[in-house]
Amino acid sequence: MAEVRVGDRAPEVTLVNPDRQQVRLSELLGQPLVLAFFPAAFSNTCTKEMCTFRDTLHGFDDIGVRVIGISVDMPYAQKAWAEQHTLSFPLLSDYNREAVKAFGVEDPTFAKGVLPGVARRSVFVLDKDGTVTYRWVSDVPSVEPNYAEVEEAARRAGAGARV
């Protein structure tokens, strides 16, 4: 499994939105992106993480950076979870595990191997052209990203977009 590193171009992957429409990652470019991979909707740490992004979204909006949540959950589950927590940014389904494999963040041992193939909790910041400018990947599902670090990386990517 290849790992996407800082300086790499983000791989082209196809995800599915809550309305069951395909979305290619390249279609989202043109502005910097924060791609927040998370293991599973309706889980405690994932809920806390996505709600933290929701609660700090105005800071990302102010700098022209879009946050996208990605998991292998089905679009129906993501939609219900997003509505339950009023998540105001897109959640995209990687039910076929294309993105977790392409980014190198598939976890084969999640839940002691009972639920293999979910995303490792990870964050990638992409510039407007799709180059990875920040990468954080956790091997421990309960560890959340350093949100201040993610926001700073997003600010740098956003500043580069406005030059």
Any overview of this molecule?
The chain has 163 residues and is of the alpha/beta class. It has a single domain, classed as Glutaredoxin. Helices cover 33% and strands 21% of the residues. The strands form three sheets. Strands 5-4-3-8-9 form a five-stranded mixed sheet. The longest helix has 16 residues. The N and C termini lie far apart (35 Å).
List its salient traits.
two-stranded antiparallel ribbon, Glutaredoxin, alpha/beta, 163 residues, 5-stranded mixed β-sheet
CATH superfamily: Glutaredoxin
Mean pLDDT: 92
Query: Biggest sheet: strands, sense, closure?
Result: 5 strands, mixed
Strand order of the largest sheet: 5-4-3-8-9
Query: What is the CATH level 1 assignment?
Result: Alpha Beta
How would you summarize the topology of this molecule?
Layout: E1 14-16, E2 22-24, H1 25-28, E3 33-37, H2 44-55, H3 57-62, E4 66-71, H4 75-84, E5 91-93, H5 98-102, E6 106-107, E7 118-119, E8 122-126, E9 132-137, H6 147-162
Parallel strand pairs: 3-4, 4-5
Antiparallel strand pairs: 1-2, 3-8, 6-7, 8-9
In short:
33% of the residues lie in helices and 21% in strands. It contains 6 helices and 9 strands; from the N terminus they run E-E-H-E-H-H-E-H-E-H-E-E-E-E-H. Helix 4 links the parallel strand 4 (66-71) and strand 5.
